[in-house]
Here is the input.
Amino acid sequence: MKKITLEVNGKKVTKEVPDHTVLSVFIREVLNLTGTHVGCDTSQCGACVVHADGKSIKSCTALAADLDGSKVTTIEGLVSNGKMHPMQEAFKKLHGLQCGFCTPGMVMSAIDLLKHKKNPSDKEIRDWLEGNICRCTGYQNIVAAVKEAASKM
Amino acid sequence: MASLVGSRVERKEDKKLLTGRGKYTADVTFAHQTYAYFVRSPHARAQIKNVDISKAAKASGVVAVLTGKDIVNDKIGGLIAGWRIKSEDGSDMKVPAHPPLASESVNYVGDHVAVVIAESLDEARNAAELVKVDYKVLKAVVKTDEAMKSDSIYKDIPKNLCFDWLLGDRAKVKEAFDGADKIIKVDLINNRLVPNAMEPRAANADYNPSTEEITLYTTSQNPHLARIIISAFNGVAPENKLRVIAPDVGGGFGSKIYPYAEEVVCSWASKKIERPVKWVGDRTESFLSDCHGRDHVTHAELAVKNDGTFLGFKNETIANLGAYASVFGTVTPTYLFGPCATGVYKMPAAYSNVKAVFTNTAPVDAYRGAGRPEATYTIEVLVEKAARELGMDPAEIRMKNFPTEFPFQQTLVHSVDSGDYNAGLKKAMEVADYKGYEKRRKDSEVNGKIRGIGFCTYFEACGIAPSAVVMSLGCGIGLWESAEVRFNPTGNVTVFTGSHSHGQGHDTTFAQIAADQLGVPLENIEISHGDTDKGPFGYGTYGSRSLTVGGTAIVKACDKIIAKGKKVAAKMLEVNESDVEFKDGEFIVAKSNQKKTIGEVAFACYLPGTYGEVKSPLPEGEEPGLKESSFFDPANFSFPAGSHICEVEIDPDTGTTEVAKYTAIDDFGTIINPLIVEGQVHGGLVQGIGQALYENCHYDDSGQLITASYMDYTMPRADNFPEFKLGFTCTPATSNPLGTKGCGEAGAIASPPAVMNAVMNALGTDISMPATAEKVWNACQKMKKSNSEAA
Here is the structure.
């Protein structure tokens, strides 16, 4: 067991967890923030992407204990004063989601892309999102949504 | 009031899903929760000699370990095949028993042997390793085309043959072939796929010993069907004591239509231990135990005249059912496949013969398109080959054989109510700039690439109906759909549907329909589905049926609301009912300014009488309240159709195939929400292109699943695709008042042949799906060799 302290969505939390607890389990099972999803066990699908110290990471393959002291943002942390993040707004406007299961990871990943590249091309968006699998949308409206968000941010 | 039908309305359900406020089954945890982990067979085929649970039962945190023997002792019934198919000789299909936990034999890797239930998932998983199963391993039957020649898996099912089914007239086909100028032949494999909804299957069953009621949360496309099967067939609880909730569901694509062993076991176990039991599959469990799709081996022939006229078609297919006959496993390769295999063409004679076989692989059932992708692939590859061999343009040969008069009596079953196939193909050729293709091909050549173009013109039959006809063909369920439209006293509306949304956007599309019918603002309408305790019994969502069948039920229920509203409004306005008209949410007296809004009428229905200012008399004999339901059973299927054109560019040095250009022109009849319909097409295309170029479920000779994770099974990703060009034509369906046709599966039906025809056009040789870099590179090497020999 290890005692860890993280700042999650702006709130400090201190919990004692088994050493092997991965961040996705910590977020979902310990903090009950179920917006972060788990779609595979091999760090491939990207449904579990969150931000740790501002960078997108796959929370299913990061040990919570390794992130002791980090600032973590999950999909629940994006809404501010009741307003959705421009990326969330763009996904809604352009139908960038269907079943919604991959969506939290997709949104978190796309936000990180715009930190690296302000106005990415279609190809750059598609290359960046290669680590996020969506089975519903065929990606086309996701690409359009990321471009829309880039124009608003 | 402007009509909402046809508008690009943003989805009502999106905000919760975008902000992490959705509620999927894995997100539901009860007080006193226990966690289940399944012990699965590591062997494709084995007898179970003994299961020793003694060590596992004593392990830390373990609450119970249950095995197939407990299932037998508690008389829990097996999983079912939902459609009885008869063989050509009139005999009934043969199906093996399918217990939720095996006690005698296991028949595929991943088959369920025992369940360990513990205080935590870690403890359940650790204890599962202590369950000792003594197997006698037998030789597995794996390959589709070898199953009939292999050992019988089940002693009373010779040749592993479930049925040998025929649709059509062999003698007429022979006659047509005898009179043909040319016979075109293909041998095809329709590769096995894993549906891979992004949300792995899950279940959480909570038994209340005081009320004796089980509440089952599950990842289902069809909670009502889950309830009736788990109740009536598995015998876990009476229907009135079983509530099934399918909350937000993360995609299904067919794989979540029916209940699996896990839901049955969790429900039964919860009752046994009197605590909630939760199971969440991991991705490898999904690969191993979700029902798979496709897996056909087909020989097909087309008889043609030299001018390209089609004379006859024959289709000999072996379909792999996997180890057990699943709910829609037997109808998918028969009635959903055979009739559509003649394609969108006039075909004077045809037959489809399907031999369905059992193998030691995961069960195969409906996967997006279910039978129609296999049918369309067969005929469209054949037609393109015919064009090649006759030296005809691929568009010309198709147009020559299109029906132009509707209703069109298709060769094997369907009477297609409406369509304009020429208009669709012409539009596709225009949007795809077919005229400019040769220039693009040359440009690719200059860049060292090989370009190819492929066509697919398809029709498909979805929204299966009517119930009486499909039941006469062996279907064990009805195929109508229900709706209940409930005005609340304050004038807003809740619409209950028996269908289920797991990405399709019913909350929005159905609200658009109800808003138009009732004249109530969209934001005042909620759509409710997915809970057997709330809405009426229904048949869920699959086979592109929700809108045409379920949407129509909503329209019918709205009609009844308006009919009652007219009577009430007439009484309130002290006029004759025949003088009242309904328009845009208002009951208006003709040639006057007297009116009542539908909200006022609803209020009057709930508060009938006079109370101070409130004067709301009900007509004599009318019951209070304003709530109506409808059960709609359509007279026919709906028949979407379209023309897709794909251009690929192949790098001969690496074998990589890139989809360079993709045009999809579809006829879905009336479109309610173009934003959502386009999304359905995009998603279908990616699944279909995935089948053509990337995805393949592979078992080795011993029956081990080699592609059991995303490291091994190629899922289509964002960087695999160009921007698709979409367009629509519209011939409204006549079988439903909205004029809609299903749109959910068309992309997955049309794209595999369009892509493969382009690849084969580029390479000048037949190649099987998926056209992986390795296969394409080898074909390029051969092409190089034969070119240099020719030079």
